């Protein structure tokens, strides 16, 4: 690889890293070509970018961004694949699902909204983190629950009593 090609890769990685808040580092060493292609296909279908990169080029790209990726530098050894996604837990769930057929890909580290997660001990935490969409769904469900209770109360006998009470108050006001 020439110096110019390396600089192109670094610039491209810098742009990708700067534009995304969810970056996972995975170990794909020892995976067969068949399994690697299967992983790439699943990533593509789940809108997760997967790319195997040289550690030195990735480190230089991380240093060029305005984000603090320095906590990930200790994980840059061996074969490294970066996984870029919109949802913070999507790569973790994909890795967990894919591991049902074996122990690869390995989890090295993750950068999620400026937080750094290192090693397998933090992997389950990442799997259990709710995505933005899941949190919004939970909030909507919580907000709908009291409204549903009020509506059902108004539709039952209590609703008729409330309507009668409102009518009586209106008649008094006149």
Q: How far is the N terminus from the C terminus?
A: 89 Å
Work out the count of structural domains.
2
Largest sheet: 5 strands, antiparallel
- How large is the radius of gyration? 25 Å
Mean pLDDT: 84
Predict the CATH topology of the largest domain: Alpha-Beta Plaits
Shape: elongated
Q: Report the count of strand segments.
A: 5
CATH superfamily of the largest domain: Ribosomal protein L10, N-terminal RNA-binding domain
The CATH architecture of the largest domain would be: 2-Layer Sandwich
**Helix amount:** 55-70%
> Low-confidence parts lasting 5 or more residues at pLDDT below 50?
none
**H-E order:** HEHEHEHEEHHH
Q: Which CATH top level class of the largest domain fits?
A: Alpha Beta
Number of helices: 7
Secondary-structure class = alpha+beta
Share of β-strand residues: 15-25%
- Strand arrangement within the widest β-sheet reads 2-3-1-4-5
Tell me which oligomeric state these chains represent: single chain
């Amino acid at each position: 690889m020439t110096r110019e090609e390396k600089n192109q890769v670094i610039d491209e990685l810098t742009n990708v890293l700067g534009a995304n808040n969810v970056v996972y580092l995975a170990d794909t060493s020892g995976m067969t070509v068949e399994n690697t292609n299967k992983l790439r296909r699943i990533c593509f279908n789940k809108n997760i970018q997967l790319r195997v990169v040289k550690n030195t080029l990735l480190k230089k790209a991380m240093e060029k961004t305005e984000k603090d990726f320095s906590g990930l530098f200790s994980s840059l050894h061996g074969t490294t694949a970066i996984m870029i996604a919109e949802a913070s837990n999507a790569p973790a769930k994909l890795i967990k699902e894919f591991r049902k057929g074996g122990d690869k890909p390995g989890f090295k580290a993750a950068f999620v909204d400026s937080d750094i997660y290192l090693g397998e001990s933090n992997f389950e935490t990442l799997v259990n983190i709710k995505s933005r969409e899941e949190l919004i769904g939970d909030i909507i469900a919580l907000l709908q629950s009291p409204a549903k209770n009020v509506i059902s109360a108004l539709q039952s006998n209590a609703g008729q009593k409330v309507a009668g009470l409102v009518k009586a108050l209106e008649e008094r006001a006149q």
